[in-house]
Amino acid sequence: MNRYLVVPLIYPRKNTDMKSIISGLTPPLDTFNNKNKLSKWFSIVNDFKKLITHWGHFKYIRSRIEVFFNIAKNSMNMKKNHQYTMPSIEKKVARVVLLTEKLISMFNLVYIDLRRLSSW
């Protein structure tokens, strides 16, 4: 939130202490130089507070994101990246994301549980 001024989409797990997360939100020092940045930061924090209180609605989305990355890491060999340049990493990640999405859509067509696929 501080660096990119966006509200995060991945919501916390079950036993997360929301009070400590909200009390730990402090604006970065460079936002005090610019009033527009500071007001934007406070509006983002207020949006975050509103969304985080209803994070149960986003549980399904978080579950799908976790399943996607588990499949990408375990089934598509994303655990080990031995590329050292940015273009080669971008090529590998693009292939893995495309193939993971295709694999998920194939398994959805035959009604197989995706959680089994990530540990397969």
State the gist of this model.
This protein is an all-alpha fold and 120 residues long. It has helices at residues 18-23, 35-53, 59-74, 86-109, 114-118. It is extended.
What about the largest sheet? Answer: none
Task: Look at the helices and sheets and give the structural class.
Answer: mainly alpha
Total beta strand runs: 0
| SSE string | HHHHH
* Mean of residue pLDDT values: 77
Helix content: 55-70%
Notes on the protein architecture:
The protein is mainly α and 120 residues long. The chain has a domain at 59-118. 58% of the residues lie in helices and 0% in strands. It is built from five helices and no strands. The mean pLDDT is 77.
List keywords for this structure.
120 residues, mainly alpha, 5 helices, 0% strand
Which helices and strands, and how do they pair?
Blueprint: H1 18-23, H2 35-53, H3 59-74, H4 86-109, H5 114-118
